[in-house]
Amino acid sequence: MRIIAVDDEEFALEDLMSAIRCAMPEAELTGFQRAEEALEYVGKSNCDVAFLDIGLAGINGIDLAKRLKIRMPRINIIFSTAYHEYTGEAFELHASGYIMKPVTVEKVRQELEDLRHPVLPQSNKRIRIQTFGNFEVFLDHVPIQFRYNKTKELLAYLVDRNGALCTNGEIMGILWEDDADAPKRISYLKNIRSDLVNTFKDAGCETVICRQRGRIGIVPTEVSCDYYDWLEGQAYAINAYGGEYMSQYSWSEATHGNLEQIKYNKEVKG
Question: I need a labelling partner for 120 at 20 to 30 A (CA). Which of 47, 185, 230, 256 fits?
Answer without folding.
Answer: 256
